[in-house]
Amino acid sequence: MQIGIFDAGINESAVKSIKNELDNVGIRSFTISSRSATKTADCIIVLGGDRGVRNYFHGNDGSNIPVLGIGESESSGFLAQIDLKEFSSYINRLKNQNYKIEEVPRIGVKIDGKNVYPVLNDVAVFTSKSATLMEYTLRVNDEEVWHDSSDGVIISTPIGSSAYSMSAGGPVIFQDSPVFGIISVNSLDVTRRPLIVSNESLIEVDDISSRLYCEVILDGIDRYKVNKTLECKKFNPAKIIRMKKDSTAISALAKKVHLAEDLLNMPPSSKLLLKILEYEGAMTQKELLTKTMLPDRTVRLALSHLLGKGYVKKKVSIRDARQKIYEISKLE
Fold this sequence. Notes:
Blueprint: E1 2-7, H1 12-24, E2 28-32, E3 43-47, H2 49-59, E4 67-71, E5 82-83, H3 91-95, E6 100-111, E7 114-119, E8 122-127, E9 134-140, E10 143-150, E11 152-156, H4 164-167, E12 179-185, E13 195-198, E14 203-209, E15 214-218, E16 222-226, E17 230-242, H5 248-264, H6 268-280, E18 283-284, H7 285-292, H8 296-309, E19 312-316, E20 324-328
Parallel strand pairs: 1-2, 1-3, 3-4, 4-5
Antiparallel strand pairs: 6-7, 6-17, 8-11, 8-15, 9-10, 9-14, 11-12, 12-13, 14-17, 15-16, 18-20, 19-20
Helix pairs in contact: 6-8
């Protein structure tokens, strides 16, 4: 058996530890980068939690090798169920290939006729500056559904439906549903409602215009300028190794329902940090500052509020003992 190891966060000590554990049970391993060939591997171990798994598939969109995602937090993710500390307890199951492989839907993306990498969560179109309206025409399977003026539009996979899509008023879609969600964000037309379409559909956001230029945002990470047209359709699924039986979709939904009332009264900065930690996974204060572009004092106060409420917890980073990382707390 041979396993590739991809580290999205350049965690050399964790990679070394995993390689040693694999060697101890007779499993050969090698490290890979986002641009390197995966060689002949039975599976790929990806460090960095959900964000690391997304990064891996962004750089290896054609890979058909199953991926085991590993995080350094104790909270299970959608794509990475296993915590680094518990990896050793699963290593024999990994060796014996005693696990389930789940095929996670992806959306193939084409911007102005040019292919970019497929997404695992969502693809969105917004103006380059917030609170600026954009106009567009939505077509599904070449039929016009609506012409809209709104802040933007989001096309989501089932896994992505509980992230940005849900925050914008979209429904939660269970992971095994063969559909995509389409959500108009803050439309001027109050009759606009989220749409659920077959994942076999061709979805087009066409005739895009605004007084500012517009951008396509992939999985909340990369931004690409779009002149006129975005096309989305089903892409080959990502293969994710599941070691645990618990449903991350149901547990995540329960967490969101529990938080709903408090979110209404939460300061905007706290809401923003909570959403980013929920979407991106565990982050340091410095990473949160970079991601939010908020003042240092605002981030500190927001973290203090979230820690006090018990929605976020703080722990020492495995990578650097001098760093503190923040993550969503589990709800009992």
